Amino acid sequence: MTAPMRVGLVINPTAGKNTGARIGREAASLLAAAGHEIVDLSAMDGAHALARGRAAILERSVDVVVVAGGDGMVHLGVNLVAGTDVPLGIIAAGTGNDNARELGLPVRDAAKAVERITRGATRRIDAIRLVTAQGEARWFVGVLAAGFDAVVNERANGWRWPKGQMRYNLAIARELGVFRPIPYVVEIDGTRHETKAMLVAVANGPAYGGGMKVVPEASYDDGMLDVLILHEVSIPTLLRVFPKVFKGEHVSHPAVEILRGRHVRLEARGIVSYADGERFEPLPLDCEVVPGAVTVLT
């Protein structure tokens, strides 16, 4: 057991069909019972939680930041602690939990997650930094989607009904009828590639979307980015290839190419990227890997 800590806790109450609140509260009780001070950083939305968390880190009023929820909460936590010496604890309580699972952390188990957080072991992982036109650094730690998958997300998020997975299923069906290969410029460490593609993903971790192994060999701590390009194929071929992503078997298809580098620039018209499942930035965008930028409590 570590010495008593001041734990900055952020809970997403709606994560995992509202299990985030239950598991988050259970974790808070366990941490408090172990003698740690809970500093509640939860807020009405992500922007306010970021502001509260950044203020707490700046004021040195917390020793660690712990997030309870899914990949979106991991994304928020990474944007709080990246580039600082404050470690991140993860209480995985969402629907997908890809980053937690790929990092070997417990999923939907408050007691095991708290044990990982309080035993004192850490792991340094890479994070990906993008600097906006306004000079703000934005980070992600898993996968950035910038093709068919991002287009579906954007369409689904524009609908208020239906709720849950059905909304995304309908968005997929709607998009398949109108989707066309996207002209891209993909620049990696200064080498320019021009192509038409169905999907481009920039990966620091292997998986996204609830278990899709989009780049199975990607590693959180190798100092490199893996860029997957699914070049132009027919819609029937896309429907045959895409389901194979759950086992990582899509990478053997001749239309799939994986490139590696430290700095990536993506250019395409009308595409808004999604990173760690969260709406991120419109293309064009530039991002780079920052080795060891985040310390995770493991």
From TrEMBL:
InterPro entries: ATP-NAD_kinase_N, Diacylglycerol/lipid_kinase, Diacylglycerol_kinase_cat_dom, Lipid_Phosphate_FormReg, NAD/diacylglycerol_kinase_sf, YegS/DAGK_C. GO terms for cellular component: plasma membrane. SUPFAM superfamilies: NAD kinase/diacylglycerol kinase-like. The keyword Transferase applies. Its cofactor is Mg(2+). Pfam families: DAGK_cat, YegS_C. Residues 2-134 form the DAGKc domain. One of its GO terms (biological process) is phospholipid biosynthetic process. Keywords: ATP-binding, Kinase, Lipid biosynthesis, Lipid metabolism, Magnesium, Metal-binding, Nucleotide-binding, Phospholipid biosynthesis, Phospholipid metabolism, Transferase. GO terms for molecular function: ATP binding; ATP-dependent diacylglycerol kinase activity; metal ion binding. Belongs to the diacylglycerol/lipid kinase family. This is DAGKc domain-containing protein. It comes from Knoellia locipacati.
